[in-house]
Batch of 2 targets.
Target 1
Amino acid sequence: MEMKTSRKIQVVIIDDQEVVRIGVRAALENDGRIEIVAEGATEADALRLTDKHHPDVLLLGLNTIKTAKLAHRNLSVFDTIRRLVKNSQTSVLVLSRYGQKGLIHTMLHAGASGFMLKDEAMNSCEALAQAVVDIAYKRKLPLSPSLYEKLFLQGPEIDDVPRLTKRRIEIMQAIADNPQLTLAQVANLLGIAESTLRNNLSAIFRTLDTPNVNGAMIECLRLGLVRIGQ
């Protein structure tokens, strides 16, 4: 369900570098659609402030992860994102100094709704603000062209491809082709009930081991099951 447009998008900023928090705040405060409600420096702050403020979007900074080959269980931020996604309606936008394919995929697979390089975010206040708005209104996955190419145009790095039925692939393709539509509108486009669409999405999430639509879309794109038109 999309947010009501009568109030500002509430945002919490988490980063262990004060200069980054200052830069992000300055970038977002200039956008009249966004309100910064809190800041923090640690993953514990992320959980505490989300529980306290229930923001629409949490910006989570990554500064110290230097390899994409770490196992999921060794990435505490992976667990933090999963807890945030599971326990609240808050969407997570990851801002990272690093853009390795494995790291991007890990964060999105955990349930993050978007991923941006910090340099790109700091160099374009408009792009950062628009990413926050897109996430809040669940319009599309905020991902720069360079990261999109890195993730989806180099082929999957897997041996066993999960199987989706033709109809479920059609459902995911319809969502990819119409990011501006709500699920109810996508269901209408496909000529099915919204409850049928949601049941199919639940089955897709289980098959692909993902927590939400964004996670499922990442997997479908990575596996070559769905294409985004240029």
Target 2
Amino acid sequence: MKKVVIGLSGGVDSSVAAYLLKKQGYEVIGISFKFISEFDDSDARRVADKLGIEFHTVDYREDFKSIVIDNFIKDYEEGLTPNPCSICNKNAKMKFLYDEMIKYNADFIATGHYAKNDGGKLYRSADLFKDQTYFLASVPSKILSVTLFPLEGLEKEDVRNIACEIGLDVYNKKDSTDVCFISTNFKEYMMKHAKMIKGDIIDIDTKKILGQHNGLSLYTIGQRKGLNIGGMDNRMFVVGKNTKENVLYVAKKDTNDYLISDECIIDSVNLISIHHPTFCTAKFRYHSKEIPVILEYLSNNQIRVKYNSKASSVTPGQTCVLYLGNECIGSGIIRKIYKNNEELWYL
């Protein structure tokens, strides 16, 4: 009997994944990670008892804070817009599961992600809307090669139906959609934890000062609401952040194309496929439109990504994920943005 360690959060996805693994004949060990003080493992414990599997809660708060939370805040303070879920899967969640696998002398790790794994190759899940390869693209091949995704052929409705049929009371539990370590809203969290220095909001076209921002970390590229510049809020949106001068740049949405670019540089590249194509497709945010791109492989683990169709709101700090057909071939962090061969200085 093969042994598998599964990340068991107490949500419907990981719960059904654990059930399916046991049904397939695996010896299943459920692990809940305590990443924040407010963590509650009661749902996960009830699921483990119902399924009759071994269960443990492991306190990783200190490591999670240094690896994910501190870097999340640091990136925002430097004017970036990070993706904490990608960072977590790469450096925390999947790595911690891998460590637990070794600890328990298991053969595999597993999660309730919607994705397909074939010998370390990552493919989209059957439920394309729920597909989570975007968040898994930064996970090293070493870990993916021993990872199972039991939900790979299922859609969300199927998963809830299975949970209901086997009597799991989490069958209708709401999906988690927010950043897991932010229990309040984003603004309140950043006001409490990040350095906040007020500065000017400047119209990038007229160079006029329109108002004051409360700290650059509170704003994201493309943001339109909550700028507090009087009656102009509905007509202006964020196009850039100058951290050296502490300036927030805005522009009129109907008269400019400041957020349009045609290439970017990504670094911290993680290629998980044997295919290193020149032509493929890319996503620059989780639910963004996938577009055709041309890849130029550079030194220092960087790739120049060119997209002739042009894209909007490609943002430094976000994750660029690459696909070749149905296969997810890797990812990188967006660092520099270009349009017409010129770097966009305001980003």
